Amino acid sequence: MAKVEQKQVVVDQIKAKLEGASSVLLVDYRGLTVEQDTTLRKELREAGVEYRVYKNTMVNFAVQGTEFEAISKHLEGPTAIAISYEDATAGPRVLAKVAKANEKLEFKGGVVEGTYYDANGMLAIGNIAPREELLGRLLGSFKSPIASFARVIKQVAEKDAE
């Protein structure tokens, strides 16, 4: 098999992974120790995020003509790609947690649900609480006024009974 055909196979694999992705994040992993990288990969795997290192040219060819094309400008130097499928914020959230503990892990940019964000935007998305926690807060904010209203009605009813 010629080198071009081998490279095309890798590009097609990357394209296939990007098709079902809800978010893609690029990070510079220089300076991470093997132990730190192993821990990072384990946390990402548990969160359902695929984390790989591909050649920048391969990723560049794969993102051409897709919603992730905007990340191609960040494909310089050592670059790892984190692909989230179900929870769009899972990858950025895990990587933001690791980046707080290790300054050497740098965000480059990414795309979340079709919208491009630079490094600061992706870091902000990474600091958003998980979906379940946000839903719990929302339900709690709905419950509080209803409970207060119920207490007031009860007190009014008790006052009228006297």
From TrEMBL:
Keyword rRNA-binding attached: yes
Residue ranges the record marks as coiled coil: none
Superkingdom to which the source organism belongs: Bacteria
The keyword Ribonucleoprotein belongs to this UniProt entry's keyword annotation: yes
Keyword list, A-Z: Ribonucleoprotein, Ribosomal protein, RNA-binding, rRNA-binding
Assembly: Part of the ribosomal stalk of the 50S ribosomal subunit. The N-terminus interacts with L11 and the large rRNA to form the base of the stalk. The C-terminus forms an elongated spine to which L12 dimers bind in a sequential fashion forming a multimeric L10(L12)X complex.
Role this protein plays: Forms part of the ribosomal stalk, playing a central role in the interaction of the ribosome with GTP-bound translation factors.
Protein name: Large ribosomal subunit protein uL10
Annotated source species: Zhenhengia yiwuensis
UniProt lineage: Bacteria, Bacillati, Bacillota, Clostridia, Lachnospirales
Gene designation: rplJ
